[in-house]
Design brief:
This protein has 176 residues and is an alpha/beta fold. Helix content is 35%, strand content 17%. It has 5 helices and 6 strands; from the N terminus they run βαββαβαβααβ. The longest helix has 16 residues. It starts with a strand and ends in a 22-residue tail after the last strand.
Amino acid sequence: MKILVIGSTGPQGREFVAQALAAGHAVCAFARNPAALQPAPGLEVVRGDVFDQRSLDAAARGQDAAVSMLGVSFAAARRPTNVFSQGTRNLIAALKAAGVRRLIVQSSFGVGDSRRDAGLLERVFYALLLRGAYADKVLQEQAVRESGLDYTIVRPTRLTTAVGTGRYTARVGPGP
């Protein structure tokens, strides 16, 4: 499968790229700074920005699916942003133009209806320190739901840089 990865140079993006390559997929890593990724068999690195529609359009051509792992720095997460919402809207337009139907978007636990499952301290943390990012992720998820694409929104509760164990817990729908 040919997978376009948006946000490929962040910690989760790099891990996704590595795992996709290890599984035998061809990966097109979309990056503002291509030098941040090491060359590897099966990896094509494309310079681009989610605010540059032409670069997204070019990267989407020939792909089977796209994974968006957009992120902002912790310092920027407090301030208003449109990286998630506008970047995703631009990606959706590029995918539709290229005929790509499958989209996976990494959002965050505590966004949208998952906020009700967060504890009090988590809700305070999100409201105070991640306010800008979380407000924009709500708009991002809305754009994905309204896209008409075959999509999955993933809201991880905890991501680490530890070596993978192969054990995961996943939940579909609401609940603790």
